[in-house]
Design goal:
79 residues; alpha+beta; Transcriptional Co-activator pc4, Chain A; 1 helix; 4 strands; PC4_C; Transcriptional coactivator p15; ssDNA-bd_transcriptional_reg
């Protein structure tokens, strides 16, 4: 179970004023992995967007497998 605000695992800076946050959140009594884009508003507050995905915890291993496959098949770090 998570608390009302969820559990934040970490974040990735996309660009200036935009980041991706990975967290576990609860909705209607069920926990979900949430990977969502946030932006910095004019009040200098981070706000979530509709851009992202929400998965049940049982699908996390599948997602990790797909990301590893993408990495092995040629997704490279941008410089």
């Amino acid at each position: 179970m998570t608390n009302e605000q969820g559990v934040k695992f970490g974040e990735i800076q996309k660009k200036e004023g935009e980041k991706v946050v990975v967290s576990m959140k609860e909705y209607k009594g069920f926990d979900y992995l949430d990977i969502r884009t946030y932006f910095l508003n004019e009040k200098n507050e981070w706000c979530f967007t509709k851009k992202g995905i929400t998965l049940p915890p049982g699908k996390v291993d599948i997602l990790i497998g797909l990301l590893n496959k993408a990495k092995q098949m040629g997704v490279k770090e941008c410089k």
